[in-house]
Amino acid sequence: MAMLKIENLQVYYGFINAIKGVSFEVNEGEIIALIGANGAGKTTILHTVTGLITPKSGKIEFEGINLVKTPAHKIVSLGMSHVPEGRRIFQQLSVYDNLRLGAFTLTDKKQIEKNFEYVYHHFPVLAERKKQIAGTLSGGEQQMLAMGRALMTNPKMLLMDEPSMGLSPIFVNEIFHIIGEVSRDGTTVLLVEQNAKKALSIADRAYVLEAGRISLEGKASDLINDENVKKAYLGE
Fold first, then answer.
1. What is residue 172's predicted lDDT score, i.e. its pLDDT?
2. Distances (CA, A) of 230 to 108, 193, 225, 233
3. Which of 98, 110, 189, 198 is least enclosed by beta carbons within 10 angstroms?
4. How many CB atoms are located within 10 Å of the residue 48 CB?
5. Whole-angstrom Cα distance, residue 162 to residue 51?
6. CATH code for residues 1-79+194-236
7. CB under 8 Å to 23, separation ≥6 — which residues?
8. The pTM is what?
9. Residue ranges of the domains in the chain?
10. CA-to-CA dists, residue 181 to 138, 187, 208, 232, angstroms
């Protein structure tokens, strides 16, 4: 059974139809990539799934629960965590305080400590810099902090919006390596990414979004060799 199921999603900004009848699903344990050009509607879909935007129509179900009728702040408690585009860390707070805020839905102190250990295991630099003010970290370190904060909730599913944006190639490789590790630990991942080659290299399946519609879907290993995808998104 699909962990996340989206059916005939319609989203409008005023009179503009941004998402036009999109349907897709994410099964437990998968890494699913949503790729497409700027303005294709990738971020809008993530914002609608996590309750930041209300769709005009369509169904969004997470483990059988109707997310359209669930307030955004309650979606985190269901086991879904969102790493937003642009990181959105709390710049004035320390690394530790940013991570601690990520666990705001948890009350079990032992579980919170376990989650800190898990995050520090995957991101040793955050352990080294836990007292540092988050706004003074490099771009790559801030991205790691945004991911670590999302993982502090112990999510079943992680939604990631453009994790490689603005990062050096070394950090991009590191971030994608960690996404793979988190997936192998059992977290399901829905990844929105403009770096199509990188996204397809770690995804199980992928959907190509064009002007608010899904134009292609399939195994990531097939799409990475698809001539249309190569021309449009892989710079070949």
1. 87
2. 48, 15, 7, 6
3. 110
4. 24
5. 19
6. 3.40.50.300
7. 6, 7, 8, 9, 214
8. 0.90
9. 1-79+194-236
10. 22, 9, 24, 29
